[in-house]
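Human:
Focus on the backbone:
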Amino acid sequence: MNKEDKKVHINFWYIMAAVLGMLLIQDLYLESTKLTPIPYSRFQSLLNEDKVAKVAISQDYISGSLKEAQPDGVKDFVTLRVDQRLSPTASRTSSHCGSTPSSRRVWTSTA
């Protein structure tokens, strides 16, 4: 084995380590931004208990963050949007609600 073969062999392992490192960073990022699907009734309960820090309302979904993580690990959530006429409790809370453009897509994981 001459010097050139050894050099190519070492560079291959550097590339493999870099690719694995990038996959690890991607996995950590995706895990940190994961939205947990919750029922609308639970969203209402959390809202009434003043545990919701931020809310974003799109055409079909409501997503948001809680002030503190729940015992089951829920911190960021998504739920189906229910018409406010069907749910009058949404307007009686102290949490600040905002809206997002209806073209925004919210992806959920069933994992």
